[in-house]
Amino acid sequence: MKNSIVYLYLFVVTLNYSCAQDAENKANTPSDIPFSEELLIDGLQIPWAMAFLPDNSMLITEKSGSLIHFKDGIKTTVANVPQVYARGQGGLMDIVLHPDYQNNGWIYMTYASEEGEEKGGHTALMRARLKDNSLYDNELLYKASPNTTKGQHFGSRIVFDNDGYLYFSIGERGARDENPQDITRDGGKIYRLKDDGSIPEDNPFIGNENAKTAIYSYGHRNPQGLVKHPETGAIWDHEHGPRGGDEINIIRKGANYGWPLITYGINYSGTPITDKTEMEGMEQPIHYWVPSIAPSGMAFVTSDKYKDWKGSLLVGSLSFQYLERLTLDGTKVTNREKLLENMGRVRDVRQGPDGLIYVAIEGKGIFKLIPKS
Amino acid sequence: MRKPILTFLTLLLGMAHIVGQNPDLPSSIQRGSELYADFCVTCHLPNGEGVPFAFPPLAKSDYLIKNRAASIKGIKYGNEGEMIVNGITYNSAMAPMGLDDEEIADVMNFILNSWGNSSNDPVTIEEVRAITE
C-alpha cells in the first residue's frame, strides 16, 4: 500500500517534469487591439515572403513563381527569376536581403527546383542582384537531391545570424522515415552556409562519412519559420507537426530535433506515429501547438509601436487563419493571442525597417498594421 | 464441347460490359487516394470533412456533385473567390497543385467515390484535358 502511494507520487512528479509546457495551451482573443490593418498591396494569390529594400520599396514572392517589386504603389513583375517546380506545397518561397545589402546588393531566395536528373523537384537556394526590375548575377548556392514528385514539405525559410552565416530550412519532402534522421540525405534539416554558398569549416558534420556537410541540425519536419532572436542572436525555428505537434525550437549546432521518433502529434488519420514525446539525445521544443495551427512566417517585435508588444513573437496560422502573438518570458511562452481572425491563411509576417508589422495573407495581399495612437 | 465455351465467353464479355463500364476505375481510385494523402489531406482532412468557413468539405459536398467541371478546373488551375458549399460561404484561395491530367482524374475519382460520395461516371484524362482556364 505504502509502496503504491510512493509510486503514484513518483509518477505524478515524473509527469510534471516531462511536460515541457503547461496543460493550458489556448489562444485568447484580445479586447484591446493596438492597431488597425490597412491593405497595402492587393491582388496577390499566395504571397509567400516579403523583403524591404532601402528605397522603401518591397519585394514579394508569389508561390506560383513570380517575384513582384512594389514601388510607389505600383506592382512590377521582376524578370529572370529561376523556373520553379510549382507542385503541391512547392514553388517560389523565401526572400531575404544580405545583411550588407547596401554595399553588395545580394538577394537570397529559396524555391522548389527541378534541377537534377530525377523526375520531380527539391528545394534550392540561390542569390542574385536586382537592377531595372530584372535579376542578374544569378548563382545557385544549394540544391537538395534527389528530386521527388511528392508534394509536401519543401520548407523553406532563410535567415542570417550575427556572424554573417546563412541558415535555411528544407522540409522532409514527405519521406519521414528516410530523410530527417539521416544526415547523408537532404530534407528535414536546417543548413548553414557562408554567404557565398561555401560550407563553413566548423559545420557539425564535416568529417562524417557521406554526410551532407551543409547540415547544421536535423530531425525536422517542415520548418516554415526561421528568425534570429533580437537579443541573444540565437536562431529560432517553428515547424509544422503532423496532426498536432507544431513546434518552436531553438536551433543548436549538430542537434537532433527528433522527427519522427518523437513528436507531440499523430497521423492525419488519427493513428499514432510514436508513443514518445522525448528521447535522450533529442531536443525538446520550447513550445508546441496541439491542435496544429500550421505555422508559417515568424517575426520578433523589436519596435515599441504597439504598446506592450516589444519582445513578443508573431506567427502566421494557415489552418486557423489568424496571426498569433506569443508573449515570452525568456524562452517560455506565457500567453497566446489571436489577431486578424478570419481574414485568410496568414503566410508571412515581418517587421519592416519602419518598425511596423507587415502581414501576407493568401488570396488577399499584404497588410500593414497601423498603430493606434 | 465448343458450344459451352462459346456461351461462356459470350457471358463473360457481357458481364464485363455490365459490371466494368470502366475497368480502370478501382485502380484510378487507388492512385487517387495516394495523391489525396499527399496533396489534399492537410486542408480537406482525412474524411473529406474540411473545416467550416475555412476549407470546404468534399464529403457529401453539394458543390462537388453539382459542379463537376468547376471542381476539376479548381484542382487544375486553382480556386479563388466565394464559393457556397452545403450552405456555408467560403472565400479562401486554393493554389493549383501542379498535378497532371491523369493525376487530377485519379484524385477526382477518389473524392467522388469516398466518404458517402459515389459516382458511376468516372472522370477521364480526356475530360480533364478538355477543361481550360
From TrEMBL, chain A:
**Domain Glucose/Sorbosone dehydrogenase, chain residue ranges per copy:** 44-363
Q: Which residues form a coiled coil?
A: none
> Which InterPro entries has this protein been placed in?
6-blade_b-propeller_TolB-like (IPR011042), Glc/Sorbosone_DH (IPR012938), Quinoprot_gluc/sorb_DH_b-prop (IPR011041)
Pfam short name (any one): GSDH
Q: What is the protein named?
A: Glucose/arabinose dehydrogenase
Q: Which organism is it from?
A: Maribacter polysiphoniae
Organism classification: Bacteria, Pseudomonadati, Bacteroidota, Flavobacteriia, Flavobacteriales
Automatic annotation (TrEMBL), chain B:
Alphabetically ordered keywords of this record: Heme, Iron, Metal-binding
- In this protein, which residues make up the domain named Cytochrome c? 27-115
Molecular functions per Gene Ontology: electron transfer activity; heme binding; metal ion binding
Task: Identify the InterPro entries for this entry.
Answer: Cyt_c-like_dom (IPR009056), Cyt_c-like_dom_sf (IPR036909), Cytochrome_c-type_DH (IPR051459)
Q: What is this protein called?
A: Cytochrome c
